[in-house]
């Protein structure tokens, strides 16, 4: 049962959730919120530092608290982090509080867009391609479970994908 009219973007790192979210928000006249930036504001630390000090589990706790607050204070366009769907309580929260769009991306476009990334702790290792592939396989059914709509953003730039969607 949908109780708030958020537009919620889920999907893997590099799918373009923040850029596309900003554009959709402007198009619909809604505020845009990025869950990762809200976690950093609430914690007073950048995401790599949160992972370093509190581990991934500590990050996921903060992520859950922020998602719960954002979902309940809409209507907004909310860009979530790629792992927001890992917890069943998050999946319930997201699907109960908005229309959920799964922005998906093929592995080659994802790698290209994230080639110079230094801000995502899960990718700061030499086997980035394998990590992205494993996360993709593990998470695909979770995105499908929560999504009302799936949209492919690969093949070209995020900007081109945003123009097709909004
Ligand atoms: C993560 C994705 C990141 C961020 C954190 C963990 C993940 O967000 O939440 O680094 O587990 O996939 P983006 O999807 O916005 O890059």
From TrEMBL:
InterPro entries linked: P-loop_NTPase, Shikimate/glucono_kinase, Shikimate_kinase/TSH1, Shikimate_kinase_CS
Cofactor(s) essential for the protein: Mg(2+)
First-tier enzyme category under EC: transferase
CC cofactor note: Binds 1 Mg(2+) ion per subunit.
Domain of life: Bacteria
Keywords, alphabetical: Amino-acid biosynthesis, Aromatic amino acid biosynthesis, ATP-binding, Cytoplasm, Kinase, Magnesium, Metal-binding, Nucleotide-binding, Transferase
CDD domains referenced in this protein's UniProt entry, alphabetically: SK
Binding residue positions for substrate: 36, 60, 82, 139
UniProt record, GO biological process: amino acid biosynthetic process; aromatic amino acid family biosynthetic process; chorismate biosynthetic process
Localization: Cytoplasm
EC number(s) on file: 2.7.1.71
GO annotations of cellular component type: cytosol
This protein's pathway: Metabolic intermediate biosynthesis; chorismate biosynthesis; chorismate from D-erythrose 4-phosphate and phosphoenolpyruvate: step 5/7
GO MF term set: ATP binding; magnesium ion binding; shikimate kinase activity
Catalysed reactions listed for this entry: shikimate + ATP = 3-phosphoshikimate + ADP + H(+)
Residues reported in the UniProt entry to bind Mg(2+): 18
Record note on quaternary structure: Monomer.
Family the UniProt entry places it in: Belongs to the shikimate kinase family.
PANTHER family in the record: SHIKIMATE KINASE, SHIKIMATE KINASE 1, CHLOROPLASTIC
Entry function: Catalyzes the specific phosphorylation of the 3-hydroxyl group of shikimic acid using ATP as a cosubstrate.
Protein name: Shikimate kinase
Annotated source species: Denitratimonas tolerans
Gene: aroK
